[in-house]
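Practice problem. Given the sequence and the SMILES for zinc ion, write out the predicted structure.
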Amino acid sequence: MYLDGKVTILFVMTQVVLKRNERIDHIQFDGGTLCLDFVNTVHDRKKKPVPDYLHHIIDLVAWAGKIGLVDKKSETLLNRSIPGNLKKSDQFFTYALSLRELLYDMFFTISQGNATRNADLEKFNAYIADHFSFINLKAKQGEYRAGWNLPNDSLQRITAPVVKDAYELLLGNRLDRVKECSNCGWLFLDTTKNGKRRWCSMKSCGSNIKALEWYYRQKETKQVSHAS
Ligand SMILES: [Zn+2]
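Answer key:
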């Protein structure tokens, strides 16, 4: 009986772990840079509560696979290690989501033309300390590349490049190009020539807003012609 109970619990736990959010397969990468794509792993920032694409560590691993942070082999390895390390994996998931929300707060503030709060920067410095000791430089044909001295089954393989990307964005000269989509609240780096991008994507939010603007313009025109 005891053994049966143990087996059943394990089975249920495995079922919970392996049921990942299939919407990850359709998520768009419109952030223009990795750290903002991570911030955009929610459906709509303007909705309360915010509908999240990441419900469990397995969703985070799936996202990392889709965006190319881990290859298929590492993704399988990470997924296999989760059921045996549920508590640790859950803790890491909470840690990663805190990073995501911290990055959102920091880059949203920047998108509004303000400087990040010192308290947020301090929190971000802790993430830098957690990851940058694993940076591993390699030279290939005269070019230097930064890799990570982390085992293939380390979940930090997902957060390390995100932290590095955010660090580079903060230190670069493109902060005035960090913007908020007026429709869904996603953050993005405007890489257009004229720097006049208003939406995360023309396909989704841009066309919705344009259709609405057109509708209201038509309505106004009709009202004016009725009045005259
Ligand atoms: Zn949008």
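Check your answer against the key. The pocket of zinc ion is lined by residues 181, 183-184, 186, 199-200, 205 (CB under 6 Å).
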